[in-house]
């Protein structure tokens, strides 16, 4: 079976692992440390590298689960306009355009479109309008080191722990 991998960082990685683990087409979700190169942020363009950020690795079957669907779920669970630890990292060059397009859409949501001389409506990221800032970091993965088995699926091993997301309600609301 052909699979692909995508890496997300965010607020509580144990919650993210639970959210993505039971989705159709997702083969495996691991918690670990992410290092990335050529990282850029829609808030801080000077950012170039990212070292040892805790995140998750999602291995998925692209015939059953689309990368855009995974990012939609991430951006619905975590607020890209408030969570400064949010990141999307790809290991394959073929995923770069789709990740960039999706995050650029999120970053420009709510901005007025600009009309060019050819009467084409385009999004201009340089419009000086007070809008929400997108804090999502994007970059190519340099290294991922999985956490020890003790940290994997921590919330399943400790169901008494309270989470900020009602995981039962979330899983009931997902329909594919």
Description:
It is a single chain. The chain is an alpha+beta fold and 176 residues long. The chain has one domain (4-173): 2-Layer Sandwich (Peptide Methionine Sulfoxide Reductase, Chain A). Helix content is 25%, strand content 30%. The chain contains five helices and seven strands. It has a five-stranded mixed β-barrel with strand order 1-3-2-7-4. Strands 5-6 form a two-stranded antiparallel ribbon. A hairpin with a 5-residue loop joins strand 5 and strand 6. The model has no long low-confidence stretch (mean pLDDT 82).
Please outline the helices and strands.
Blueprint: E1 4-9, H1 13-21, E2 26-41, E3 49-60, H2 67-77, E4 87-90, H3 96-108, E5 114-115, E6 121-122, E7 137-146, H4 154-157, H5 167-173
Parallel strand pairs: 4-7
Antiparallel strand pairs: 1-3, 1-4, 2-3, 2-7, 5-6
């Amino acid at each position: 079976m052909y699979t692909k991998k995508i890496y997300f960082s965010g607020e509580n990685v144990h919650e993210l692992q639970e959210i993505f683990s039971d989705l159709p087409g997702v083969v495996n979700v691991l918690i670990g440390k992410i290092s990335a190169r050529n990282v850029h942020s829609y808030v801080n363009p000077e950012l170039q590298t990212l070292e040892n950020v805790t995140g998750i690795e999602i291995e998925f079957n692209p015939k059953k689960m689309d990368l855009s669907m995974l990012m939609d779920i991430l951006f619905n669970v975590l607020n890209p306009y408030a969570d400064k630890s949010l990141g999307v990292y790809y290991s394959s060059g073929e995923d770069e355009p789709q990740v960039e397009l999706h995050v650029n859409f999120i970053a420009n949501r709510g901005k007025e479109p600009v009309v060019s001389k050819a009467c084409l409506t385009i999004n201009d990221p340089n419009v000086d309008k007070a809008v929400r800032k997108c804090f999502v970091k994007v970059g190519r993965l340099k290294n991922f080191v999985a956490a020890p088995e003790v940290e994997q699926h921590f919330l399943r091993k400790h169901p008494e722990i309270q989470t900020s997301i009602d995981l039962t309600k979330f899983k009931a609301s997902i329909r594919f």
